[in-house]
Amino acid sequence: MKVLRINAQDTYPIRQLMLVPSHLLKKAKFENDDDEDISFHLGAFKESKLVSVASFFYERNQLFSDLHQYQLRGMATLPEFQGQGLSSELLSSAFPIIKQNFCTMLWCNARVPAVGFYQKVGFKKLNDDVFEIDDIGPHILMFKQI
Ligand SMILES: CC(C)(COP(=O)(O)OP(=O)(O)OC[C@H]1O[C@@H](n2cnc3c(N)ncnc32)[C@H](O)[C@@H]1OP(=O)(O)O)[C@@H](O)C(=O)NCCC(=O)NCCS
User: Fold this and answer.
1) In the structure, which protein residues have their CB atom closer than 6 angstroms to any atom of ligand 1?
2) Ligand 1 centroid to residue 117 C-alpha, Å
3) Are 81 and 51 spatial neighbours (Cβ–Cβ below 8 Å)?
4) Using an 8 Å Cβ cutoff, are 41 and 12 in contact?
5) Is 33 helix (H, G, I), strand (E, B) or coil?
6) For residue 114, what is the enclosing H or E element?
7) pTM, to two decimals
8) Beta-carbon contacts of residue 55 (< 8 Å; ≥ 6 apart)
9) Where are the domains of the chain?
10) Is 11 strand, coil or helix?
11) Is 48 left (phi over 0), alpha (psi -120 to 50) or beta?
């Protein structure tokens, strides 16, 4: 397995498949995806096939006091490659990059079914508030100091 920096557009097929409900025409593109001053994207490759992606955006959430924060978005692994530590590897590879950019805090809106994953990789819930994101479902705000 290899972790590499990838372009935003490389993430779209996995985002579209894993994160966008199939009945929606919604695109898998996020704001600032292509702005290299704000975001970076990592991919895990198995035998040259991109199988897991994650994207990181310099984005402050006012609920946290840290001045400089990153938001994790678009974290997904193809079903047949889940449970092999790929998302954990992507996060481990992202932490030094985030630190290099003078940030020590990573937060995300975690889908409720994925909360257990985020806890395993060291994220905490800010509180137990569950909020709905349109068309996607219930989420919980989580964070990790890095
Ligand atoms: C959540 C997701 C990204 C995890 O990716 P993955 O590559 O399978 O994760 P890893 O293999 O690195 O898992 C790390 C650990 O978390 C555990 N884990 C993975 N998904 C979990 C879940 N949903 N609940 C509880 N634990 C989970 C793994 O078993 C592993 O535990 P271990 O260290 O004891 O072996 C993947 O299941 C996925 O793509 N889900 C659908 C899309 C999604 O919901 N993304 C999150 C959006 S907020």
Assistant:
1) 18-19, 52, 75-77, 82-88, 110-111, 113-114, 116-117, 120-121
2) 4
3) yes
4) no
5) coil
6) none
7) 0.97
8) 8, 11, 30, 33, 39, 40, 41, 42, 72, 73, 74, 75
9) 2-145
10) helix
11) left
Cα(87)–Cα(34) distance, rounded to whole angstroms?
22
Per-residue pLDDT of the chain (146 residues; tens, 9 = 90+): 999 999 999 999 999 999 998 777 677 999 999 999 999 999 999 999 999 999 999 999 999 999 999 999 999 999 999 999 999 999 999 999 999 999 999 999 999 999 999 999 999 999 999 999 988 999 999 999 99
Contacts of 76 (CB under 8 A, 6+ apart): 14, 15, 17, 18, 19, 52, 53, 54
Q: What's the CA-to-centroid distance between 17 and ligand 1, angstroms?
A: 16
Question: How is domain 2-145 classified at the CATH fold level?
Answer: Aminopeptidase (3.40.630)
Residue for token digits 């990789």?
121
Give the tokens for residue 47.
């035998």
| Identity of the residue numbered 99 | K
DSSP state at residue 38: T
Which pair of structure tokens corresponds to residue 146?
A: 């890095």
